[in-house]
Amino acid sequence: MVRYPVTWDLPIALLAGVVLIAVGWRQGEWLGILRSVGATLAMLIISIAAAVGIWTVLAGRRGTMGVAESYLYLAGLIMLTAGISIIVARLTRRQVGTVADASGVVTVWCLLGLLLAIFAPGMGYLFVWLALAGGLVLFWRSSSSAGNPWQLVFSALIVGSELVMLIPAIDTFYQLAQPRPGNLDSQILFIVAIPVLFMALYVELFRALGCFPQIIERKPEKI
């Protein structure tokens, strides 16, 4: 168990923001980063709306779920989220460079970490460390050769470490969204939006850092 003062989250988020600004300054692709941020937010909204709608209907009809059935539905929501991420990426990110795309995704993580550090102290760790580590990797990626195999290695380490931190949070909020026959006061179905938000952010991170096969077309180099 790693412990540190909750007041560290805000400085870490601000430091991550500085690193991401440095990445954008080095690349000069501010418009591409903004497009990526917008596409990421659109993907989150679509994923959450679809999941809440499906889960509300499903949980209303399946008031008594076994553990295996419940997690099977969670797997289905993950697959739905991944599909939405890939579709949104294909529709909106073809003219965004790979580093700018990843910078936009990590920027969303940084902004959420900053908001949580201010308004929900204690939950910022889910976002701020990833934002800082991701920003550092992107800064390195923007200044090194594209074929460097260590880039993918460090990206995979970051993605794997973040999964370890997100799984307990996803499971906790997913349990709160379970149908509870006879105890409707504690049946908060719409709270499924929170674990879906975490899953959608993770899927976007997984895709943008290059752990999915690259589906984004690079911008043609200027002559």
Task: Give structural notes.
The protein has 223 residues and is an all-alpha fold. The chain has one domain (18-208). Helices cover 73% and strands 0% of the residues. Helix 2 (30-61) runs antiparallel to helix 3 (67-92) and helix 2 packs antiparallel against helix 7. The radius of gyration is 18 Å and the shape is globular. The termini are far apart.
Sum this structure up briefly:
This protein is 73% helix and 0% strand. With 223 residues, the chain is mainly α.
**Average pLDDT metric:** 84
Strand content: under 5%
How many beta-strand segments? Answer: 0
Helix content: over 70%
Low-confidence region ranges = 211-223
List keywords for this structure.
223 residues, 73% helix, mainly alpha
Question: Any chance you could write out the topology, listing elements then pairs?
Answer:
Elements: H1 9-27, H2 30-61, H3 67-92, H4 98-119, H5 125-143, H6 149-176, H7 193-208
